[in-house]
Structures are given as structure tokens and as C-alpha cells.
Amino acid sequence: MRSALGWIGLAGILGSVFLICAGAAGAAGTFVPARSGGWPGWLAGPLSGLNLSLSDTRFQVLTLVMCGAYVLVLLSARGLPMRALAGTIVLAHVVLLLGPPLLSQDVFGYMAFARMGALHGLDPYTHLPSEAAADPVFGFIGWPFQHSPYGPLFTLGSYATAPLGLAGALWAFKAVAVASSLAAIALITRAAGMMGHSRRWAAAFVGCNPVLLLLAVGGAHNDTLILLVLALALLLGAGASPRLRAAALTVACGVGVKVTAGVLLPFLVLAPRRRFERMGVALAGIAGLLALAVLGLAGFGVHAAGFLGAVGEQQQLFAPYSIPAETARLVGLSGVPAWWREVFVGVFVLVLAGALWATARGADWRTAAGWSTLALLLCTAWLLPWYGLWLLPLAALSGDRRLRGATLVFCAYAMLIHLSLADPLLNPRPPHPSRHLPFPVPGARHRLELASFQILRNVELYLRW
């Protein structure tokens, strides 16, 4: 009986992914925000030829079907053939590759920063995409007034896509997202086997997760590279003879993509029992960060750390579905005051300190890092739903069922905020919208498309589309 439910779940995941991608490709709808720049064939993708449609109601139903199917797969994963799991995961990724970029314009931001540096001689850490407004990518981007928040390794690597044109660059980033996601799932599966966990369950937990499929891979986000970095570090740290120094070097490379990858580094340092071994892991991590600094200086000179300033710029914004924003609304605060955000930052620091202390005393470093990552996601005011990807590999390889359960709850929340059924609970109508936004808000339920406008300090940003 359980095996049959698992097969139904696999079919539900594949079917819902296909219908969402094909429906989004069928017409220039709100599920592909980048249509603001037009609707060329290379954006819609080959699935557009099926002439399917995707309404808000249909998207909501299909998303709920995908989530329900995921639960069925998790409940029966240990009894399903590995070939069936692997085949479903690979096919779902292929469908997402063929579809348009879903629910986000971030991939065009990657393209804009790459073209700024490679074609226009503009440092993306000191210049804005709006300064290259004549570039054909400009109409497709959603953040024309923000500096690049991505590390120098990713930024310099992205320059290679600039000569490919818009179509070639988009498909290159989509291919990277698919390849890195599949590679990460394979590494996590192998690590689970080395640790004595169920390989099938770990593969299903990560590879069939709707946050990974619909939000991260579907949007071609570079967070899939962070997933790959974490997966490789966890594999290197698994088994009877963990290679923690190599894992620390790997995480340092991840910082070159996004600074948040560095959260894992102190836990790797404290993982060994002996002080001498901890010193070796710390030196390996420092060496990796120094190599990254040299690369950044070679590429961007004195502005090599400019991405850290851009991350700071982001922290001046808040997403309305972040926990600080939701709790501020519940207690009647206007917006999310700086002091309220600082309270949550303090909570995260306390959780991180406690987790590091527990790791130093012999607690499992993967579990401690997982709880710290969850605390980061819950405490940041700038929460984007695909950030849940950072938590998946840590929870998958942790023996803590509570962490796994908390991860699933967070993933459910990340999916819920995209559905209109959540509006009455999570998206009440502000009494004075103009108080926060200096421009009209288009669409029902205050849906805001990320087009060409300046985001100011302490502005409330609506992420529904």
C-alpha cells in the first residue's frame, strides 16, 4: 500500500511540474515576471508550442498537488526503487530546464551584472544596472538600482555568459542550475549511504522538494550552486575518515558565490575533537578565503569586497512574508523598525553561539549548523523563499528528526506564500499603501512586479506575482 502511494507521489510531482512549466510557457503571464522585457521564443522555451495555459487557480491547485505528492514520496521513499526516484528527479529537472524562468527575474540580474562588467566596463560592485539602460537585458531585470550582492567567484565566472547574447546566457544559467542541483542530490545521496542513513529517503527529501524544484531550479537561481557547495562539504565530512580541511576549502569557495555559505565554516572548524585538528581545519578555511580575496582583488581591485556592501543594502529592505515582518504586523508596528530587526539579529546570534558551543562539546556539527541556518532564515528580514535550499542538505543528513520536521514546515511556508489562499492570513491590505510605496501598486491583492523602480530604505517589498 505504501509503495503504491509512493508511485502516485512520483507521478504527481512529474505531472504538476510539467503542467506548471508548460502552462507558464503558453502565454506571457504573471508566473514569468521577466516577460516585462517582452515574450521572445527563447524566454518562453520549447514547451510554449503545447499552447497550455496557467491561471492563478490552476497554479495554486498544481502547487498543492506537488506538495501533497512530495509528502507521499517521503512516507514511502525507503520502499521505492532508487531508479524510480532518480528517474523522477532527473525528468523533473529536464522539464524545468525546458520551461521559462519561474516566479523570479533574478537570473536576468545575473546576466545584467555579467554584461556590465564584460561588455560595458562597469564594475557591478560600484555601478548599477540602470547605468547600462541601453543594454537589451535591461527590460527583463527586476532590480536596476541595486549593486551585485554575489561573490567574486560567481561574478567573474558569469562574465563568460556575456558573449552568448540574452538567449544563450539564459540557457547557460538554466543549465548550470539544473546540473548543480542534480550533482548536489547525487552527493547528498552518497553521503547518506556513508553515514548509514537511507539513500532513498535523502534523495527524495532533497530532490523531490518543491522548494528545490519549483522555486530554485525553476527560477534558475544561483542558490543551487550553494546547495552543491554544501553537499560536497557534507560528503567530504562524512564517513569514518572525514576530510574536513577539504570541506573547509569547499565552503570558502561557496563564499565566493554567496556570503551565507560561510555559516557552515565555524562548525567545520569545531567538528574535530582535537585542538590540533581544529587548527588545521581553520587554517584551510582561512587559506581558501585568502585565495578568494586574491581573486577578488585581481578582478575588482579595491572594490573586491563590494558584494558585502550590497548584502548590507539588502538588509535595509524587508520582505513582507519574513518572520520579522509578519510578527511586526501582528503586534501592530508600522513597517519593520530597525530596532525590531535588531531583536531578531540578536536571537540569531544567540542561537548561533549556542550551536557553536554545543558543537565544541561534541554535538553533531551538521545538526548544529542546520539549526543555525534555520534560525538565520527565520530571523532575517530579507527572506526569499528559495533560500530554504540552504537548509535542505543539512537536514537531510542530520539524525535529528526535529530538524527535519522544522525544515519541512519552513518549506511548506515558503510554498504557501506563493498561493492566493494565504492572502487573508499573510497579506492583509495595508491601511495606507502609499505610506510605504511611492508609486502605484498594480494588480489585485497588491501584487507587485519587480520592474524598473528604485527601492528606498525601509520600503515594504511585496514578493507576490
Sheet with the most strands, sense and barrel status: none
Number of strands: 0
Strand content: under 5%
* SSE ordering: HHHHHHHHHHHHHHHHHHHH
Question: What's the rounded overall pLDDT mean?
Answer: 89
Low-pLDDT parts are 429-465
Radius of gyration: 21 Å
Helix content, binned percent = 55-70%
Number of helical stretches of at least 4 residues: 20
- SSE-based structural type: mainly alpha
Shape: globular
Distance between the terminal alpha carbons, to the nearest Å?
39 Å
Total discrete domains: 1
Walkthrough of the structure:
- The protein is mainly α and 465 residues long.
- It has one domain (2-425).
- 59% of the residues lie in helices and 0% in strands.
- It has 20 helices and no strands.
- It has helices spanning 2-26, 41-44, 56-76, 82-98, 106-119, 152-158, 165-194, 199-207, 210-217, 223-236, 244-255, 265-270, 275-300, 306-314, 323-330, 338-360, 365-379, 392-396, 401-416, 423-426.
- Helix 5 (106-119) packs across helix 6 (152-158) and helix 7 (165-194) runs parallel beside helix 10.
- The longest helix is centred in the middle third of the chain and has 30 residues, at 165-194.
- It is globular and about 60 Å long.
- It starts with a helix and ends in a 39-residue tail after the last helix.
- The model is unreliable at 429-465 (pLDDT under 50).
Task: Briefly summarize what is shown.
This protein has 20 helices and no strands. The chain has helices at residues 2-26, 41-44, 56-76, 82-98, 106-119, 152-158, 165-194, 199-207, 210-217, 223-236, 244-255, 265-270, 275-300, 306-314, 323-330, 338-360, 365-379, 392-396, 401-416, 423-426.
